[in-house]
Design brief:
CATH superfamily: Phosphotransferase system, sorbose subfamily IIB component
Number of strands: 9
Number of helices: 8
Order of helices and strands: EHEHHEHHEHEEEHEEH
CATH topology: Fructose Permease
CATH class: Alpha Beta
Distance between the termini: 33 Å
Structural class: alpha/beta
Helix content: 25-40%
Strand content: 25-35%
Low-confidence stretches: none
């Protein structure tokens, strides 16, 4: 399957994604699925230029949710190794509900904000996050916490039901 990694990370594309996961997986493309970023030229340009941080050819695509879903239906999708990045579990649910081919989700960074509780060293959640995690789990999608490729995986499914 060309979707090498589907990652929730509220920082979107940053060093851990590009250098850590990028060098580890050597994808052809990183797709950042974020409506707000896709509609803001300066943010698009900033994230698109992050592909220059690695020594191999890496395309960065900044798509709205609709554009991401359209891309999944194109032949190009089947030809490339892809990392998909979203900001929260809500986006995963929305994509899956519209037919996105997601079978496993890496929870890489959901950082502290007021009203959130810690369930892992780099994962803080609120009631909405838990609601969407449960919806993802109900669709038989595996949730694994792992900030970098060399870190031990954490089964988020177990943690969600302990809260």
């Amino acid at each position: 399957m060309p979707l090498e990694l589907c990652r929730i990370d509220d920082r979107l594309i940053h060093g851990q994604v590009i250098v850590g996961w990028g060098n580890y997986l050597k994808p052809d493309r990183i797709i950042l699925c974020n409506d707000a970023v896709a509609q803001e030229d300066w943010q698009r340009e900033m994230f698109e230029s992050s592909g220059d941080m690695v020594s191999f050819k890496l395309d960065i695509s900044i798509f709205t949710q609709g554009e991401t879903l359209s891309f999944f239906k194109q032949d190009e999708f089947e030809k490339e190794k892809i990392i998909l990045i979203v900001e929260s579990p809500r986006e995963i649910c929305e994509l899956v509900n519209e037919g996105a081919p997601i079978g496993r989700v890496n929870v890489g960074g959901m950082h502290y904000k007021s009203g959130k509780v810690q369930i892992a060293p780099y994962i803080f959640v609120d009631d909405e996050d838990i609601k969407y995690f449960k919806m993802i789990i109900e669709k038989d999608i595996k949730l694994e916490g792992q900030d970098v490729p060399t870190a031990k995986k954490i089964d988020i499914t177990e943690l969600v039901y302990l809260i």
